[in-house]
Amino acid sequence: MKRLSAIIGIASLLLLSCCDYFEKNSKEVVVAECYGKYLYESDLKGIVPENTSTIDSIQRVSAFIDSWVRRQVLIHQAESNLDKEALNLNKQIEEYRNSLVIYAYESQLINQKLDTIVSENEIADYYEQNKEDFQLRNTMVRVAYVILKEDLDGKQKAMFQKLLSDPDTLLLQNIDVHATYYAAKSYLDIDHWVRLDDLTSIIPIEIFNAESFLKKNKFVRFETSDYTYMVRFVDYLLEESISPMEMVHDNIKNVILAQRKQVMISKMQEAVYEKAKKEHAFEVYVGSPSFNEE
């Protein structure tokens, strides 16, 4: 504590050399003052971690005090130039607080009572009933590829071509070990859908008509001065077609959970309202003057 006080004292003197280091009262030591606002020594607790050197400690405290002073100067400038109506923030503060309180209560209610288990049947039913919502915005492909350095032995290239071009997708499993040793880059997850334009950003294939290209090409090989590219197209979905359920499975689950949350919150709000109504906790004065003013 004595070390912190010493550090604060040094930092304060460095920043506020023109001001006195003083005590506002016997309990709180003031380390900075700006337009009648005070920064106390107790406000600086936790600013300096343990085992921090004296120089670093002084820098941390100095930076904090400087930041506080700058903020108070800005607040004073804003308050001096805003009219009374703009400065009346009580209503906004109350609304913000109320929103935070309600949100905290609703979050607690959801965490305690929401059923988070979504069955596969629920997901399938939602998918069937809302297929039009799952229209693709991009052409998608299931694909495997390897990028081989151009100086790789011809036999190794032939081996990769045989494994990738074979219609038996089980052979793709044999590529993994070879790709680790010989490929500059590879992708073999044929169960995962990827965007065609993401693929062409890695594999420089010129595709002018996606539908025509994908219909005609199951395996593509081409070479540049540096690399040999081999690509196996397993499946594709054209833009504006309907996404398969496995592609949107997790999104549907999240939508169902979001709907459950909304239903739970709505029921809670209605129940709270009805309870307050029965208890005569509120009264609406329909005939009050404010309702008749035009």
Order of helices and strands: HEEHHHHEHHEEHHEEHH
Strand content: 5-15%
Low-pLDDT segments: 13-24
Q: Taking Cα atoms only, what radius of gyration do you get, to the nearest Å?
A: 34 Å
Report the average pLDDT across residues: 84
Instruction: Choose one word for the global shape.
Output: flat
Number of helices: 11
Described by strand count, sense and barrel closure, the largest sheet is:
5 strands, antiparallel
Q: What class, by secondary structure content?
A: alpha+beta
Ends apart, CA distance between termini: 65 Å
Number of domains: 3
Helix-residue proportion: 40-55%
Give me the count of strands. Answer: 7
What do these coordinates show?
This protein has eleven helices and seven strands. With 294 residues, the protein is α+β, with helices and mostly antiparallel strands. The strands form two sheets. Strands 3, 4, 5, 6 and 7 form a five-stranded antiparallel sheet that branches. A two-stranded antiparallel sheet has the order 1-2. β1 (30-34) and β2 (37-40) form a beta hairpin. The chain folds into three domains: 2-85, no CATH class; 96-134 and 245-294, no CATH class; 136-237. The chain is flat and about 85 Å long.
